[in-house]
Amino acid sequence: MANFDAVRRAGAGVDAQIDEGLRAHMSRVYGIMSMGMLITAVIAWAVGTDYAAATAGQETRFLSYGMLNAMMSSPLRWIIMFAPLAVVFGFSAGINRMSENFARGVFMVFSALMGLSIAWIFAVYTGVSIASTFLATAIAFGSLSLYGYTTKKDLSGWGTFLFMGLIGIIVASLINIWIGSAAMQFAISIIGLLVFAGLTAYDTQKIKATYIQMASNGQTEWLGKAAIMGALSLYLDFLNMFMFLLNFMGQGE
Question: Considering only CA atoms, which of 71, 107, 112, 65 is closest in space to residue 88?
Answer without folding.
Answer: 107
